[in-house]
Amino acid sequence: MINSKEKYSKFIKEEAKRLGFLSCGISKAGFLEQEAPRLENWLKNNRNGQMTYMENHFDKRLDPTLLVDDGKSVVSLLLNYYPDKIQNDESFKISKYAYGQDYHFVIKDKLKELLHTIQENIGDVSGRAFVDSAPVLDKAWAAKSGLGWIGKNSNLLTQKVGSFYFIAELIIDLDLEYDHAVTDHCGSCTACIDACPTQAIVAPYIVDGSKCISYYTIELKENLPIEMKGKFDEWMFGCDTCQDVCPWNRFSKPHSEPLFSPNPDLLNFSKKDWIEITEETFRLVFKNSPIKRTKFEGLKRNIKFLE
Predict the structure, then answer these.
(1) Is 24 one of the annotated binding-site residues?
(2) What is the pTM (predicted TM-score) of this model?
(3) Annotated catalytic residue within 59, 70, 132, 265
């Protein structure tokens, strides 16, 4: 049996690595004091657009102990999704995170295994796994546990591997050794702000979600606003512009998760192929893909808007 905070923490990090996670950091569960006014202002300025779910569970978003009884530690994990090949140049674009299978399922399975291994080796540990689908401020917790800093494009950035990774958490009722936040390395760079096709980064570190191409192409269920015509820079699902131009992403390395490998058709489709895509092909190419979120009609709407 393992018997100290230091050993527990080391064990959890080693297991996370074994499961393919890029990195793992741990912080003490509690109220996110600095995030509270930021989140309040962001919502007050309607930066969430029609993402009304962002207004729900305000208290839980800021305090994970309300999500897990007696929660003591937030174990933050990063999983790389940077692809080794990208779409051909003559195509409408898809955000790289959506190339392979839906990350929710891929990561949830890994988290369940990690929790199970913790329980087997450490003992009676209770907790919950979270993958971007519950009121948890993923980036804030990852930054707090030293996995990176929040950049001017509001993404978590790291010096070694940039920002093309998913963030997930285990919140558990176990005291552990806690990591410390790292310093901000954005400096005077404004590459992401300057490059955003819709000027969604309204100030350094503040993104207006309701102006983001990802919001328009995924979250918005009604017609796309006509004043945005010509501003999507060929993105039909999501947008990677602020990550593509970030100098730290020159250190991105290809992932090694087979489930994130894309259907070859996705990489080879031309604009003509996308315009002519049938529902049957959509179902085939995007089986178990995050792109199913827009449904066939949503993707067709986005493509038509780009024509």
Answers:
(1) no
(2) 0.94
(3) 132
